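Subject: design request, 1314 residues
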């Protein structure tokens, strides 16, 4: 895309789209038989903007910016009138928009031209109120003949007062105070005039007070003192009014945020964590219905029975209210009833105990149900009967007995394969497969004609021994010629049917037209529950009873061979143990294929959807990602909307209810109480599951059937989502996705990753040329929903030439698969509460292809407002968190003395064998509520090595700072070093990597200097040199046999019967560690390091002994720590790193944010690099520091004061270390009027945000002085984070996150002058 040119001399901050909570909803009712829409239009408020939506089409028509820095809290509109008095002219509405203490009155016009045109014009802005405005209502004036009858405006405020205003001249007529003087959370005004006006107030005491306004004396017979009649609304002679209480509603356990009154019969009440409908009779609550959480606003249209809700997650959801409140009517056997177009059937099998007497051991009952279409249901019984049930639109249900497949034996299992109408048969072909208690399998081909079903052919054979046939399965990709049977021991058999056989009765004995092709035996020994196959990729994938996935080879030659002598037992070629923990795998599908990979999707009884990838060349299975559907405890299957293609629906159970859940809009499509998944049941979906679904289950010998099948073309699909769904809680961190800076600079769209208080991480795309945000999808979730505190994107790999001439590594398939693409990996690292650290790997991202799809995706949008599926996807890599001890032991005296000595800066009196307070040692034993506060990470790779290491510095709330290493592709975590001492917790982290030396003619340096900068709660900024620890770790990495440890964590832990899906290797104290040493011990430590390296034999025998490696799932081990044995065989701990330099009292309080960038101005010393650090704190100050990083061998300028901390690394043979040279610094004492929460710089511009809801732009001069250039009021309440992306030359995209997220465009095209 070409770069957007800006006018010369124009430097501007432009506020972009806000994505956050929906704070206002209002209907725009249209005339009856309007050509625009059969449903009303919708006005919504989010941030400082107002949106106009079409409920019928689900499209966003227009957006308006109505406030500056003030959120829209409510919208009210009057009835419409025609602009020119003609029904063919434009529609005009008066609209009141209010937020905080402001009320604005607008004139909204709707015209239908080539497309729907909406215009908004400001009429009046009322004076600022003394309290927050909670509701506004238009009242009719005395002139009832006027077309525009909205001259009077009633305003309700949070002090429980009502004021009446004349909108024509912005003057207040009267003000009434309620007798209940209480602060309010919400208020609702209802009525057309002052006499009929009713006020419902939600107080801070969780009560609702309903009152009205009455006049005293009678205002109808008032005269002036001179005897003349006065105007009814003359404010000087206006009669006194008072508040008359009507009733009080009590009993709410949470704050009441909203109410909505419908025809005096229904009161809709919004709470902090619930939403329910209360049917009222003389203000008595009869019933309620809870349907969600975090809902701030709701609307109901009685004409269309449409309920609309909006809340914190930015979604606007549309429901059909009568479908939510509909109760099952009285069911008549053999008939059906209709409720909201949902047909309800209640039928019995022909030979049920109802007609034969009481039920006994010989009674017939249902063992299996299968839908083949919306009007066809197959029923299998315990007496071996197979029935066909016809469910007509009108008339009674008809039964047809198809076969008596197993006389006097129960049918144990059943499966169905439906095929499209055949040219020969002229009807649908249904292939039914059953298995009985004697191990006999029966296949029945049924032709469904318009008049009656007919059995075309049958196959019957002995598949297993008695009581051993537990499952029979079709595979759609193989067709009806092949079928599988399963036994309890994990063995499945593949059978081939000869379809040329003529009709054979089921009870004639063994069929000679069935051939056994192969037996597939799982070495895990668990019963196979589901399977799928890909004949093109020649693979068979099975899921078993204990959550495992097993893969078998399925050769094409084997499918074509019909000889019984060719049958063979086939062993698995690979497996993935515990994909769903210990829960059953309920379904598995091959979701996609590429030249080298097969994408697999499985669902299970743990309520999760797992996505895996199988490499057919390397024959390895990789876990890609997982989605946990919290609304379902068991997911039976996932289907796709065939019309839209991007909306997925999960069908499963939550306790005793069957639920269809829309994964795209996060809404419930259907919920049926049925008794749970153990009862016989079946379901069937059409092309749009929202409007076409069937469900049948058995209870008390009755088959209950729910059928919703809307066949009308063009009918709106409800529920739908009118606005892009986002996080439902506060955001603490965000970052732009970065891969190739040269390519990204010319790309117009950008991707942002955000972390939320509820533990979710989302990926959102922004396009400045689209009026709204493009798409947002859930990337993952922290274990247990722990809050995400910090996120960083790691995209650049720092390569270093090795001094030893390269590594000799034993490469495994995982390493080859990870490195064969040749591109640098792009990682996402997120940390948060409970010390959870999660990493993701970018799988694919093609920005060029993405841009070519933008125009097409703008035309075809899904119901949730996203523009189709994105071109960026991530693979989950690893989740690391400490071990939880069931019984916390007491803290030892030695540890007490160690901590006390460390606080005093001395450890001389501490026993040398006491372990350092590293990850998983001290904190886990006596406190498990610590949290990670900040993270920074970078990738390091040595030439000659196939391994890439992601070094991660994490700061914890227990005032510890740890350097950790993630070794790719093995996904193993190591503790590398502790950064001590720390007097207070670290809030922010940044890093700088400086090339120290390179060979002549080579760009890759021989050595890098790794420096981490930290900002703490005491206002100090510290510099840490990590070079020695990183080089020591990389040197030792080549000596470790990591391929023996690849069987570690394979999937995230969900906390729902799954501890990660694998047996965890015990890695504690199994790897060499470096000891903290004083300067006097440097020579001894170097000598010991050169003479005590573990050889290969000792590594395998002591570190990887199989007898001691495996532990139970519940006893997951800590991350490994580097250790080594010294000459006296004593084990010493990981290394300690002391700070190079500490800048004390940079801020008067905590350093909330840091950012480091290469300086654009100034002269660097030989071998050095100049950087600029910008920091912000709770003291509202903005601090800028310019410094230079020099290798120890470089000679600093004697005229410049140098701060040098002599710190020798015991593992460096040449003793090289860093020098920090401070160049200049500047401090803005009042950078913001509140705490500074986010900063960014590129060495020229400085951008910051704070709790004052401002984004400020600063210019960084050559002398290091910071000067404010401009600022912008943003719509994000409580900003917490800021990130910036450079888009071409002198143009930036600024993202601010807090309670929602907003994008800001900053263009700086002016040439800078002195």
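Subject: RE: design request

Done. Sequence follows.
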């Amino acid at each position: 895309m070409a770069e957007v040119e800006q006018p010369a001399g124009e430097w501007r901050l432009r506020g972009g789209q806000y994505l956050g909570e929906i704070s206002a909803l209002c209907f725009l009712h249209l005339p009856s038989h309007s050509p625009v829409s059969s449903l009303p239009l919708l006005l919504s408020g989010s941030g400082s903007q107002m949106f106009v939506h079409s409920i019928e089409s689900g499209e966003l028509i227009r957006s308006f910016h109505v406030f500056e820095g003030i959120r829209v809290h409510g919208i009210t509109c009057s009835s419409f009138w025609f602009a020119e008095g003609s029904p063919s002219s434009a529609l005009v509405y008066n609209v009141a928009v209010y937020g905080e203490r402001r009320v604005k009155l607008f004139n909204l016009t709707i015209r239908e031209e080539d497309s729907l045109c909406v215009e908004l014009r400001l009429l009046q802005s009322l004076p600022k109120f003394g309290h927050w405005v909670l509701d506004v209502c238009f009242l009719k004036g005395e002139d009832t003949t006027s077309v525009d009858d909205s001259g009077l405006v009633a305003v309700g405020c949070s002090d429980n007062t009502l004021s009446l205003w004349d909108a024509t001249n912005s003057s207040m007529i009267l003000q009434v105070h309620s007798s209940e003087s209480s602060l309010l959370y919400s208020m609702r005004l209802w009525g057309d005039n002052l006499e009929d006006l009713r006020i419902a107030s939600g107080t801070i005491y969780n009560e609702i007070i309903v009152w009205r306004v009455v006049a005293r004396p009678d205002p109808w017979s008032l005269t002036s003192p001179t005897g003349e009649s006065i105007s009814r609304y003359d404010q000087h002679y206006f009669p006194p009014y008072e508040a008359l209480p009507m009733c009080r509603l009590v009993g709410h356990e949470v704050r009441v945020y909203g109410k909505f009154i419908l025809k005096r019969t229904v009161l809709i009440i919004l709470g902090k964590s619930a939403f329910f409908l209360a049917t009222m009779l003389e203000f008595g609550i009869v019933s309620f219905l809870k349907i969600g959480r975090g809902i701030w606003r709701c609307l109901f249209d009685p004409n269309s029975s449409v309920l609309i809700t909006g809340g914190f997650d930015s979604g606007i959801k549309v429901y059909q209210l009568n479908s939510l409140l509909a109760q099952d009517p009285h069911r008549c056997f053999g008939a059906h009833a209709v409720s909201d177009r949902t047909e309800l059937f209640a039928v019995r099998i022909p030979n049920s105990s109802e007609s034969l007497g009481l039920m006994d051991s010989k009674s017939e009952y249902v063992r299996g149900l299968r839908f083949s279409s919306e009007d066809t249901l197959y029923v299998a019984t315990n007496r071996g009967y197979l029935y066909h049930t016809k469910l007509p639109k009108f008339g009674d249900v008809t039964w047809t007995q198809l076969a008596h497949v197993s006389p006097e034996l129960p049918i144990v299992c059943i499966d169905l394969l439906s095929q499209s109408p055949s040219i020969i048969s002229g009807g649908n072909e249904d292939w039914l497969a059953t298995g009985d208690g004697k191990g006999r399998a029966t296949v029945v081909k049924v032709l469904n004609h318009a008049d009656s079903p007919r059995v075309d052919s049958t196959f019957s054979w002995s598949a297993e021994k008695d009581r051993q046939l537990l499952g029979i399965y079709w595979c759609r990709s193989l067709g009806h010629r092949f079928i599988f049977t399963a036994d309890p021991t994990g063995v499945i058999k593949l059978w081939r049917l000869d379809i040329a056989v003529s009709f054979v009765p089921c009870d004639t004995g063994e069929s000679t037209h069935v051939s056994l092709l192969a037996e597939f035996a799982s070495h895990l020994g668990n019963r196979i529950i589901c399977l799928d196959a890909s004949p093109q990729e020649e693979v068979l994938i099975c899921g078993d009873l204990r959550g495992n996935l097993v893969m078998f080879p399925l050769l094409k030659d084997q499918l074509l061979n019909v000889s019984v002598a060719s049958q063979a037992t086939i062993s698995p070629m690979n497996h993935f143990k515990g994909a769903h923990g210990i829960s059953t795998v309920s379904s598995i599908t091959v979701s996609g294929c590429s030249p080298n990979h097969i994408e697999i999707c499985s669902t299970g009884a743990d309520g999760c959807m797992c996505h895996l990838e199988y490499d057919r060349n390397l024959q390895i299975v990789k876990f890609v990602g997982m989605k946990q559907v919290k609304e379902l405890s068991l997911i039976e299957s996932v289907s796709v909307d065939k019309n839209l293609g991007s909306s997925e629906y999960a069908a499963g159970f939550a306790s005793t209810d069957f639920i269809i859940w829309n994964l795209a809009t996060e809404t419930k499509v259907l919920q049926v109480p049925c008794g749970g998944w153990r009862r016989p049941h079946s379901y069937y979906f059409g092309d749009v599951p929202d409007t076409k679904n069937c469900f049948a289950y058995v209870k008390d010998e009755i088959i209950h059937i729910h059928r919703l099948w809307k066949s009308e073309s063009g009918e709106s699909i409800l529920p739908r989502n009118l606005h892009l769904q986002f996080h439902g809680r506060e955001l603490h961190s965000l970052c732009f996705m970065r891969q190739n800076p040269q390519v990204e600079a010319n790309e117009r769209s950008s991707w942002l990753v955000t972390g939320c208080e509820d533990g979710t991480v989302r990926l959102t795309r922004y396009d400045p040329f689209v009026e709204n945000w493009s798409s947002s999808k859930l990337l993952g979730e922290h274990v247990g929903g722990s809050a995400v505190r910090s996120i960083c994107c790691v995209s650049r790999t720092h390569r270093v030439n090795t001094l030893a001439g390269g590594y000799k590594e034993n490469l495994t398939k995982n390493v080859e698969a990870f490195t064969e693409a040749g591109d640098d990996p792009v990682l996402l690292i997120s940390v948060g509460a409970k010390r959870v650290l999660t990493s993701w790997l970018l799988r694919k991202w093609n920005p060029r292809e993405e841009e070519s799809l933008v125009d097409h995706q703008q035309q075809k949008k899904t119901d949730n407002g996203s523009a189709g599926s994105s071109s960026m996807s991530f693979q989950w890599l690893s989740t690391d968190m400490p071990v939880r001890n069931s019984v916390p032991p007491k803290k030892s005296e030695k540890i007490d003395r160690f901590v006390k000595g460390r606080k005093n800066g001395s450890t001389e009196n501490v026993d040398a064998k006491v372990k350092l307070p590293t990850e998983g040692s001290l904190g886990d034993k006596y406190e498990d509520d610590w949290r990670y506060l900040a993270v920074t990470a970078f990738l390091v790779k040595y030439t000659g090595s196939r391994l890439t290491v992601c070094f991660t510095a994490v700061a914890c709330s227990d005032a510890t700072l740890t350097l950790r290493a993630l070794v790719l592709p093995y996904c193993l975590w190591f503790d590398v070093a502790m950064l001590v001492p720390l007097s207070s917790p670290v809030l922010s982290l940044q890093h700088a990597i400086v090339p120290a030396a390179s060979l002549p003619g080579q760009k890759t340096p021989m050595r890098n200097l790794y420096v981490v900068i930290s900002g703490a709660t005491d206002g100090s900024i510290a510099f840490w040199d990590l070079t020695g620890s990183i080089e020591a770790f990389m040197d030792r990495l080549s000596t470790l046999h990591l391929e023996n440890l690849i069987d570690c964590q394979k999937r995230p832990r969900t906390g729902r019967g799954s501890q990660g899906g694998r047996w965890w290797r015990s890695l504690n104290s199994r790897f060499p560690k470096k000891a903290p040493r004083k300067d006097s011990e440097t020579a001894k430590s170097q000598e010991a390091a050169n003479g005590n390296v573990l050889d290969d034999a000792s590594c395998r025998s002591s570190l990887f002994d199989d007898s001691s490696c495996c532990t139970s799932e519940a006893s997951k081990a800590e991350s490994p720590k580097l250790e080594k044995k010294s000459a006296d065989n004593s084990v010493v701990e990981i290394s300690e790193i002391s700070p190079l330099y500490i800048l004390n009292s940079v801020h008067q309080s905590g350093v909330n944010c840091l950012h480091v960038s290469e300086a654009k101005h100034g002269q660097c010393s030989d071998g050095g690099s100049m950087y600029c650090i910008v920091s912000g704190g709770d003291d509202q100050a903005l601090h800028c520091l310019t410094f230079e990083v020099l290798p120890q061998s470089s000679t600093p300028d004697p005229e410049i004061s140098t701060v040098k901390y002599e710190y020798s690394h015991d593992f460096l043979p040449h003793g090289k270390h860093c020098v920090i040279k401070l160049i200049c610094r500047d401090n803005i004492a009042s950078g913001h009027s509140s705490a500074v929460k986010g900063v960014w710089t590129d060495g020229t511009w400085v951008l910051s945000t704070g709790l004052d809801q401002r984004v400020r732009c600063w210019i960084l001069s050559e002398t290091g002085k910071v000067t404010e250039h401009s600022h912008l009021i943003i719509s994000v309440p409580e900003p917490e984070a800021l990130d910036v992306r450079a888009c071409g030359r002198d143009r930036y995209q600024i993202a601010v996150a807090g309670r929602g997220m907003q994008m800001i465009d900053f263009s700086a095209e002016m040439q800078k002058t002195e």
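The first strand starts at residue 11 and ends at 19.
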